[in-house]
Amino acid sequence: MISRGFKVGDVVDGRIVELEEFGALVELCPGEEGFLHAAEYANWINIAKGDRVRVRIVRISDEGAIKLTRSP
Fold first, then answer.
1. 20 in a structural domain
2. What one-character DSSP code corresponds to residue 46?
3. Calpha distance 33→12 (Å, rounded)
């Protein structure tokens, strides 16, 4: 499934819009967010809401939910 033109494997520069102990919501483009599990950024220093991050799309559910991982 494609979500607003994104597909699995795409590398995207996003912005953290919500930061919780279990993970972060990353805005990929206006109106489109993906989930980055806390284990993916546990060793980042001083990560905060508003930070820019480079992520890779690893899964898009049938409902359009996007799962992310860190990207170098």
1. yes
2. S
3. 11
Q: Do 12 and 53 touch, CB atoms closer than 8 A? A: no
Residue 31, domain extent: 11-70
Token pair belonging to 71:
């990207």
- Residue by residue, pLDDT tens for the chain (72 residues) are 445 689 999 999 999 999 988 899 999 999 899 999 988 877 776 788 999 999 999 999 988 899 999 887
pLDDT at 52: 94
> What's 30's domain CATH number?
2.40.50.140
Q: What domain count does the chain have?
A: 1
| Beta carbons within 10 angstroms of residue 59's beta carbon | 13
Residue 5 domain flag = no
Three-state secondary-structure class, residue 11: strand
Neighbours of 30 (CB within 10 A): 7
